[in-house]
Write a structure and sequence with these properties.
This protein has about 600 residues and is of the alpha+beta class. Among the domains are: about 10-195, Aminohydrolase, N-terminal nucleophile (Ntn) domain (Glutamine Phosphoribosylpyrophosphate, subunit 1, domain 1, 4-Layer Sandwich); about 205-290 and about 315-345 and about 460-535, Rossmann fold (3-Layer(aba) Sandwich). It has helices at about 20-25, 75-80, 135-145, 150-155, 205-220, 240-255, 270-280, 320-330, 345, 355-360, 365-375, 380-390, 395-400, 430-445, 455-480, 490-500, 500-505, 515-520, 535-555, 560, 570-575, 585-600, and strands at about 10, 30-35, 40-45, 55-60, 60-70, 100-105, 110-115, 120-125, 130-135, 175, 180-185, 190-195, 230-235, 255-265, 285-290, 335-340, 485. Strand 4 and strand 5 form a beta hairpin. It is globular.
Length: about 600
């Protein structure tokens, strides 16, 4: 799949050692020095194809905001004038909506941070005596001459990757965890500073809902420019439908236009069409309904390497559809495509929230346990045993090292751990488990959870996983047309949602009570009554029927197998069989993502076995 253009930026400290780095970066095609230190040396260099950063200078302070944020240069300058030190840099963007990077330089030292979700990542490396940070790991890898890190490749084979194991796919290129900032001193190593933690879930629903509604409305509005067209998914679900009504309000205020898009479902008993049509009748704008088969289906073209990715893309099997829709929406005048992805992550609570409720709100867990037992057929004894288990995060993580090749837990057995079960795919080489086990135990020894409660930790981890795919999908779709944006994953929206009490984010007999309460008065009441969620496993089976040859093509001469990470026989067997309903293609999705990414890289990176 050819791609054109590439947006990137790099940040350098104010030092003589960084000058060679600056000269090399500034010589890249399309590069521009957007911000300079007080000394005149480059601070921020990049190719800003989606829009120039907002920059400000106030005395010794230099500031840049890169991405989606409503702040103006004058407003940023006023904020910068009040800054008294690099340690207070976060105050520069306090209360601002959107999804963006923040670069702050004071007296030659630099701090760069992204967002809480991971839509705006930061990576760093050292070249000679100089540290440099960037928003792309592959940029630093090419510049540094780094090779793919085979340990990271092994870690990515896990179907649920722990945050303590996540990182850059390249040797000598380090990932800054979401919620952390990287400090680049004039001389010395990079220091990480944590600026975000999941909030404590202490707010009542009636108190939190208005905050969620306002945060989501501002997240949509800051992506809308006066007089422009904005596109939004309209599946009929309780994630996409609110975005459409919020977008309608935003474009009406600015004299713009709304275009909604959805793919028709060729199933008589599927109720997405009913709810989407009901919402469309209440929305002003153009409503595009793509007939089934009019855009590429799942697995279409998955054997064709997708270039320009700095890590494997988990949604690689639907990329052909995504870029086709991006081009279609661009033809209708849209540059932004709002998606409801992320809505589930920030509003649902995982089953392990029962473990938290037993300890924090002992009067509220029994009715919720009864609901889970009725829906998932959990045995009472197993349920009570799972609730009584009290391992710390390091202890739970270490226990997963012995389960990497164990069967997946049965659907009717409760899983209330800190994260999802860590399992290797059926096609992984036996040596992988032997290498990953000790690695996992070492990581567990110093592991710290993202939050003190299991549910908040797991939600934050799932948000990071989702953002890892969406940030790359945003880049790809921007190159082909309208860029995908996920307002639910803006930091302000995450904060408002996660601050809501766990027992009120999920209630027996209620579907997405937080979303319904937050959108009251913003979305017509009849559109908030839905209590079902669309099920799309049929697209997987139809995609396999039409495009199994793509998977077989990836398996033939597999680079994963050449690296000793995949068993060739097991891999081919997995590509030829049709997965059972209980296993909706997870092994195949993982294989396609990993293999496609490896094939998009220059061959010398993979010619040596680990």
């Amino acid at each position: 799949m050819p791609v054109h253009g590439s947006e990137w930026f790099a940040v350098l400290p104010d030092s003589a050692a960084a000058q060679d780095c600056a000269a090399s970066l500034a010589a890249r095609p399309g590069a521009d020095v957007a911000l300079r230190h007080a000394s005149g040396r480059p601070c921020l260099i990049g190719a800003f194809t989606a829009g120039a950063p907002v920059c400000a200078v106030a005395g010794p302070v230099r500031v840049a905001v890169i991405g989606c944020c409503p702040v103006t240069a004058a407003g940023l300058e006023r904020r910068a004038a009040r800054l008294t030190g690099l340690g207070l840099a976060d105050e520069l963007v306090a209360g601002l909506p959107g999804s963006f990077h923040l670069v702050t330089a004071v007296d030659g030292e630099v701090r760069v941070r992204g967002d809480a979700a991971g839509m705006r990542r930061v990576f760093h490396t050292s070249v000679g005596a100089s540290a440099v940070a960037a928003d792309r790991a592959d940029l630093l890898a090419v510049w540094h001459g780094s090779e793919v890190d085979l340990d990271r490749l092994m870690v990515r084979l896990l179907q649920s990757t722990s945050p303590v194991l996540s990182g850059s796919m390249w040797r000598n290129v380090h990932a800054v965890p979401p919620g952390y900032a990287a400090d680049l001193p004039a001389n010395g190593p990079v220091r990480l500073t944590r600026w975000w933690r999941p909030p404590e879930p202490v707010m009542d629903l009636w108190e939190a809902a208005p905050l969620v509604g306002r945060a989501l409305a501002e997240a949509v509005a800051c992506r809308t420019r006066a007089g422009e067209t904005i596109a939004a998914d309209l599946s009929g679900g309780l994630d996409s439908t609110p975005l459409c009504f919020l977008a309608q309000s935003a474009v009406q205020d600015g004299g713009g236009r709304l275009v909604t898009v959805r793919t028709g479902v060729d199933q008589a008993d599927h109720d997405d069409e009913q709810w989407a049509s009901k919402a469309a009748r209440l929305l002003t704008g153009d409503h595009l309904v793509l007939a089934p088969g009019s855009v590429p289906g799942r697995y279409a073209g998955v054997a064709e390497p997708v270039t320009g990715l700095d890590e494997p893309l988990g949604v690689i099997t639907t990329v052909r559809r995504d870029v086709a829709v991006a081009a279609l929406l661009a033809d209708h005048g849209a540059r932004v495509h709002l998606t409801g992805h992320g809505g589930d992550e920030v509003t649902f609570v995982p089953p392990c929230h029962l473990h938290d409720l037993v300890r924090a709100r002992p009067l509220s867990w029994w009715s919720r346990l009864r609901e889970y037992r009725a829906l998932a057929r959990w045995p009472l004894a197993a349920s009570l045993a799972a609730l009584a288990e009290h391992r710390s995060y390091p202890g739970w993580l270490a226990s997963q090292a012995d389960l990497l090749t164990a069967p997946h837990p049965l659907r009717y057995r409760p899983e209330l751990g800190w994260e999802g079960p860590m399992r290797l795919p059926s096609w992984a080489h036996p040596d992988v488990a032997a290498a990953l086990g000790p690695m996992l135990r070492r990581a567990a020894a110093d592991a710290r959870p993202l939050a003190g409660r299991r549910a908040q930790h797991q939600i934050a981890a799932v948000i990071h996983d989702s953002a890892a795919d969406l940030r790359q999908l945003q880049r790809l779709t921007a190159r082909h047309g309208a860029a995908v944006h996920a307002p639910y994953l803006d930091t302000a929206v995450i904060d408002a949602c996660l601050a809501t009490r766990l027992d009120q984010r999920a209630r027996p007999g209620a579907y997405k009570p937080l979303t319904v309460a937050a959108m009251a008065g913003r979305v017509p009441e009849q559109c908030l009554r839905r209590t079902t969620k669309g099920e799309f496993s049929s697209t997987l089976f139809e995609g396999l029927r039409r495009h199994r040859d793509q998977l077989v093509a990836l398996a033939d001469g597999s680079r994963l197998a050449a690296l000793g990470l995949a068993d060739e026989t097991a891999l081919r067997r997995a590509c030829l069989r049709t997965p059972a309903q209980a296993d909706p293609g997870g092994d195949l999705e993982l294989f396609a993502a990993m293999e496609n990414w490896l094939r998009a890289l220059p061959a010398p990176d993979h010619e040596r076995r680990p």
